[in-house]
Amino acid sequence: MSAALLLFCHQLQTKGLFFYVLMAICFNVPKIGCQVLPMQASTKNIPHQVFVDWLIQTSSPTALASNISEHCIHHTQYYLTALNRQQSWAVKMYESSGRLAEQLFNTDSQNVHHSTGLFDECLSIQPEDEPFQGQYCTVFFENESVREHENDHDYHSQAILETGKTAVCKEGEPKEHKSNFLMPSVGFCLPSTCSASDLRSAVAQLVGQQLINKTNFTMVVITNENYCYSQNKINTNTIRDDKLAMTVITAFCLLIALVLTATVHEIWSGASPSCSDVAQQNFHIKFLHCFSAKRNCRMLFSTKDDVKDSLACLHGIRVVTTCWIVLIHVAGEFTQRMSYTKQLDVKNASRWEFQIFTNGLFAVDTFFLMSGLLVAFTQIRQLDQHEGFFNIKRFYIRRFVRLTPVYASVQLFLATLWSYVGTGPDWNYVQQMSKSVRQNLWAHMLYINNYVAVIDQQSSLSNPSTGMIEAWYLACEMQMFWISPLFVYPLWRWRKTGLIWTTTCLLFFLGFCMALFIAYDIPPTVLFNRSSAMQKLDEYCRKHYHQTIARIPPYVMGILLGWLLHKNKDSKININRFLVIAGWVVSSSIGLLVIYGMMPYLDVAKTPVINSFVRVSYGAFHRSSWAMVVAWLIFSCTHGYGGYIHTFLSSKFFLPLSRLSYAVYLVHFAYVKAYVSHMRKPMYITEYYFFTSYLGILMIAFMLASVVFVIMEMPFMNLDKLLFPNSREIKKTKKEGVTGLLTKNKCH
């Protein structure tokens, strides 16, 4: 092997295409010239710069490896020979590999080295006379303390550099708090006969135990077969072998066929009107028309509110909040994964104009408030209509039918078909998430996934083991709905007692939330600029972010607001003009404090430690404070104190988009994950690039949501009204029946 490499190095001198490689290796060490020594030999007499220069320029780590498989060695030598002859496939393989850099880590900045190579070009390589293909593998690097693994027998020496230190390597999934690609990574194009273990050993030999900036850290090489891709591997991972996926495809095809049939029938029956009302009164025809795309599209784009006594401003608030949440998720995924501008991203996270999404995770509490409001508002109205009769069975069934079919359809898609819709250097992340969704499908359908997922102590917001990450909200909201009658009914039956009881529970929940921050010393929120806070991100999610009892205060506040609005639905609450102004000033001040309250603590150099009082008070109360801001906004708009804000939020334009908000929430994050996982190259994130990409993703999310709404969400809402009509719908049906009978007699 050494002789072949020496011959190859000698021949490089005659090839102008690779002359710069020769110069890079030999420029500073004329005495050694182009000699390449096997790594198992002593390197004490080799200047370190020689090794580093060669390391930067190399694209084939397996070329100098001494303990890899024979097939890998043989095909690597074959590739090097073909490269020396400038054969097209070998040149393409060389160009498809990334490059190792000297400063993989820089502990003084946030720069992270990514050299991803050319994914698709690598997979297209197929030598004619050798049984291997191009294989694209990603190598990740961690920095760990040298002393941390002194007694760890799972780690082993790979090479000795002139520093006298031992190299460290390991195999496994990259594990960190935010993203795989927060770690340095290099993508190599290798023969498909080289395994991830071969690549790991080869890179570990090259890197060795190199101290980072003369600090007590070592580089750890991480590879895994899941991050190695060849065309054969992708082709063998076919959907035909997945029985559950084929079952889901069959079910989706039947559903689409039903929708097409219903649509054609409705168009045909509408195009050929008949005086007979038999078809109109036939239950089976009504059932079929529930799935009609024509009917459901008409409902989607209608600007007529279908709910009596609805709070018009809620539609605008719902749409704005949905767009805000999509913005936060896009920003998080873009900046936490492959980005060449890591240092700039962290710097931008401290800018005041970016706090709306770097510190905007409380946006979801707007939905908690509105959910509690609508539950109380609608249920108290029904209690009035039925003289206090509470149909608890109907109460829960309607909610389950309203949310679960579309939720289940998205879950089934993610669990089965999602992993087959694309490829990419980081597509393993999507595959692992899909697998996790499949394993925890039962927990999602029971709405307990926020507690089941956190049993695994390794789970985090970015770990694929958490599956559909944003589904924690649905579990929390459903669990809050389960216990909502404990507050709604007492408010209707015993007004004063109900108010005291609900307020006492609200104070208890706030106190419990405060106790969590005191007991577990968790950060006040997700602070991307502070490494100490990010190290506790998983604990923060498990102890607070996903805990229903810690997130319920805005929901209870919504119940109180719903009771107040229903009580005064037929009359306006008159408030002094100066009090109204004071209310807007105070509300705006609280909102700004919530958004910008953490800005003084973003710069670790200026504030190394966050004051305990600030940490506990902000962490425990900033979500409820934001809910108070939104509650004032809704109250003001409902009772005529909203002005132009009410005019904007109550615009008919928001009605169709508001109906899509639930489906957008379900589909947007999966699309963002797939988008960043299929990316072939890291991003240079600028304001123009980010907002252009965000607007495109937002539009696609609403387009996908409209399909889900028409095919899945609205049909089951129609079925709910057909199978379980309320008193108002029964009266409407009887009225339509009498009118139809008169029309029928007139026709005859």
From TrEMBL:
Q: Does the keyword Membrane apply?
A: yes
Spans through the membrane? 244-264, 311-332, 352-380, 400-421, 471-492, 499-520, 548-566, 578-599, 625-645, 657-676, 688-712
Q: Where is the Nose resistant-to-fluoxetine protein N-terminal domain?
A: 69-230
UniProt keywords (A-Z) are:
Membrane, Transmembrane, Transmembrane helix
Does the keyword Transmembrane feature in the UniProt annotation? yes
What name has this protein been given in UniProt?
A: Nose resistant-to-fluoxetine protein N-terminal domain-containing protein
Q: Which species does this protein come from?
A: Daphnia magna
